[in-house]
Amino acid sequence: MPNSSLLIEVEHLAELRAQIRAWRASGERIAFVPTMGNLHTGHLSLVREAQTRADRVVVSIFVNPLQFGPHEDLDAYPRTLDADRRQLAATGCALLFTPSVDEIYPRGQDAQTRVEVPGLSDILCGASRPGHFVGVATVVCKLLNMVQPDVALFGEKDFQQLLVIRRLVEDLAFPVEIVAVPTVREPDGLAMSSRNNYLTPEERALAPTLYQVLRATAEKIGAGEAIARAEQAGLEALAAAGLRPDYLSVRRAEDLAPAGPEDRALIILAAAYLGRARLIDNVRLNLDPR
Ligand SMILES: Nc1ncnc2c1ncn2[C@@H]1O[C@H](COP(=O)(O)OP(=O)(O)OP(=O)(O)O)[C@@H](O)[C@H]1O
Ligand SMILES: CC(C)(CO)[C@@H](O)C(=O)[O-]
Ligand code: BAL
């Protein structure tokens, strides 16, 4: 059990459960922040928000193979455990859970019982990454059962993931509160993401275009432009800047259904490839009541 300052670090489920039981026995409230590591200020803002809501903050770092497609970046995904551990210790995280793949999938991934949130899992990022949200939903269920937190925190950058998790928690009656944390951005607007590390300096200079185009699309729709027309212009603007758009879509914020003329609470989501990276981002748009 390697320790860094006051941070307890555990790899095995039995040790995790023993520590959680001890905290529970003394009446402590537990918050949980699941991550895939390579921590940045976005992750740390989840940890800080978690601290305001509980006595102990548990963070997991697990690069979940079940949510990666066969040709995706599982092997290349940045693993920076030493730096992550230091940042978590400095931020006041109480326990870092770093399970191995065998700890999470002892029978192997193919034999793992899976959790699927129908509908929400198959659109937008789910359409381009088949099986991704089944992998996310399955591992989040397992991690919630392992940690048994009072509250779990997720970033709005991964908005579709957040809704998938909210839905599974509701449908499967998990006794946990799900808290959404706003997207933390670089000074030029780019949403912080571990995958930004894949960008060359030239690509990094282009990357904020994604957020700029999302904001411009929101402004146009706010000013009365038709949704389909604004979506098309957004896709064209991304391509003209040198990104390869996957989708740019205006949806109902509540459930990601296509936005209709009566809907007021909207979200504009986009994904685009840039070099080796697949960037995602979103902006909310609340139209005035009719
Ligand atoms: N910029 C950000 N602001 C707020 N939360 C974030 C940000 N980036 C990631 N998160 C949240 O941190 C949690 C862990 O995410 P993850 O470890 O996948 O980081 P990531 O930077 O999004 O990596 P990736 O590049 O794989 O998407 C998720 O709930 C995610 O939404
Ligand atoms: C929620 C999560 C930790 C599940 O592997 C992952 O999808 C992530 O980091 O957003
Ligand atoms: N941040 C979402 C995790 C993934 O893209 O696999």
What features would you describe in this structure?
One of its GO terms (molecular function) is pantoate-beta-alanine ligase activity. The strands form two sheets. Strands 1-4-3-2-5-6 form a six-stranded parallel sheet, with helices on both faces. A three-stranded antiparallel sheet has the order 7-8-9, with helices on one face. The radius of gyration is 19 Å and the shape is globular. 37% of the residues lie in helices and 20% in strands. The chain has two domains: 8-181, Rossmann fold (3-Layer(aba) Sandwich), CATH 3.40.50; 194-284, Pantoate--beta-alanine Ligase, Chain: A,domain 2. The protein has helices at 13-25, 41-51, 81-91, 101-104, 125-128, 132-147, 159-171, 201-206, 209-222, 227-241; strands at residues 8-10, 30-35, 56-61, 95-97, 151-155, 177-181, 244-252, 265-274, 277-286. With 290 residues, it is an alpha/beta fold.
Q: Would you count the extended β strands for me?
A: 9
Spatial strand arrangement across the major sheet: 1-4-3-2-5-6
Chain oligomer state: single chain
State the secondary-structure class.
alpha/beta
Question: What is the CATH top level name of the largest domain?
Answer: Alpha Beta
* CATH architecture level-2 label of the largest domain: 3-Layer(aba) Sandwich
- Computed CA radius of gyration, to the nearest angstrom: 19 Å
Please report the distance between the alpha carbons of the first and last residues. Answer: 59 Å
- CATH H-level superfamily of the largest domain: HUPs
Ligand identities: adenosine-5'-triphosphate, pantoate, beta-alanine
Q: Main β-sheet, in a few words?
A: 6 strands, parallel
Keywords: ATP-binding, Cytoplasm, Ligase, Nucleotide-binding, Pantothenate biosynthesis
Enzyme class: ligase
Pfam family, one: Pantoate_ligase
GO molecular function: ATP binding; pantoate-beta-alanine ligase activity
